[in-house]
Design a protein that fits this description.
single chain, about 240 residues, alpha/beta, Rossmann fold, DNA polymerase, domain 1, 2 domains, 6-stranded parallel sheet, 10 helices, globular
Length: about 240
């Protein structure tokens, strides 16, 4: 077995924008006459799609909203996100991202993004950072009905890579996911992928406990070592609930 594809989470792995998302979520809820409780954003929203986040917060306040109304809320937040990015002279991308992408591409690995973020925001960042050409597929949160920790986004990325490159014959176990949250790590493992947990959002010891590899920074990832392990062994199926 060999490593054939690398699938990146977006928020917290490619761009350091969690503070922006928290601010916009708080703003959106204030417009709904609601506020976030201390620690609630981290517990309910980190690593998950806007739809899952907003639905759970609203439901916890006794508000059962229809899907079309949730879609309107998500669209409002997406527009606000674009406006926030336009204010920034320089995008807060994580250090080492360019070099890591170059190393993956120089090894002919396919790259993708699997995120709960809205596609418009993902494409804006990738385009502005001159990274769009390096990613063959993007699976966004507004394209699927589930959210991490469900594996659907990762499985859809494999499907799309196989549709785009039929000769690849890609299996989930031939993919490496790069994640920063427990929900994201769990989603990738449920898809039968190995995971690098980068300590951008949660502590290193938590990433080490949950993922196959843990790094403090993207620059710490030893690609040769990862490739060697893929060649040496089969991926063990994760335990139920991992």
């Amino acid at each position: 077995m060999s490593l054939k594809a690398v699938l990146f989470d977006f928020n917290g792995v490619i761009i350091n924008d969690e503070a922006i998302h928290k601010q916009l979520t708080e703003q959106l809820l204030i417009e709904e006459n609601l506020t976030l409780k201390p620690g609630e954003f981290d517990q309910i929203c980190l690593g998950r799609s806007d739809r899952a986040c907003l639905r759970d917060v609203l439901n916890s306040r006794g508000r059962v909203v229809k899907e079309d109304y949730l879609t309107q809320l998500i669209a409002r937040k997406a527009e606000a996100y674009v406006l926030e990015l336009e204010k920034l002279e320089r995008l807060p991308l994580y250090p080492g991202l360019d070099d890591l992408i170059f190393q993956f591409r120089s090894r002919n690995l396919k790259l993708g993004v699997v995120s709960g973020a809205v596609r418009k925001g993902i494409e804006l960042v990738l385009s502005r950072a001159n990274l769009a050409e390096h990613f063959q597929v993007v699976v966004a949160g507004d394209e699927i009905t589930t959210s991490k920790p469900e594996p659907d986004g990762y499985l859809l990325a494999v499907q799309r890579l196989n549709e785009k490159f039929p000769e690849l014959n890609l299996l989930p176990k031939e993919c490496l996911a790069i994640e920063d949250t427990p929900a994201g790590i769990q989603a990738a493992k449920r898809a039968r992928m190995q995971v690098v947990g980068v300590a951008n959002t949660y502590p290193f010891h938590m990433m080490q406990r949950l993922s196959n590899w843990a790094v403090d920074y993207l620059t710490d990832l030893e690609i040769e070592r990862v490739q060697e392990i893929y060649l040496q062994r089969e991926v063990k199926p994760p335990l139920s609930g991992c």
